[in-house]
Write a structure and sequence with these properties.
Blueprint: E1 9-14, E2 17-23, H1 44-60
Antiparallel strand pairs: 1-2
Length: about 60
């Protein structure tokens, strides 16, 4: 990859599930999928933890899409 090109992360979703994740990055990268479509199956505590994690992501990471 040329240094002037943006790094890319591509997530393929089919049937509501992550099927593949691809990247042009040459270093390890952690990918977190926060799925809020749980059809009411999460407990209030699990939903609160997910909301807190999202708030942390929004304040500490740069949006790319």
């Amino acid at each position: 990859m040329r240094s002037t090109e943006k790094s890319r992360l591509t997530i393929v979703i089919s049937g509501g599930m992550v099927q593949n994740v691809y990247t042009t990055l040459e270093t390890d990268v952690e990918v977190a999928i926060l799925d809020f479509d749980d059809n009411g199956e999460r407990s209030d505590d699990e939903r609160r933890e997910l909301d807190e994690h999202l708030a942390s992501v929004q304040s500490g990471q740069q949006p790319i899409y």
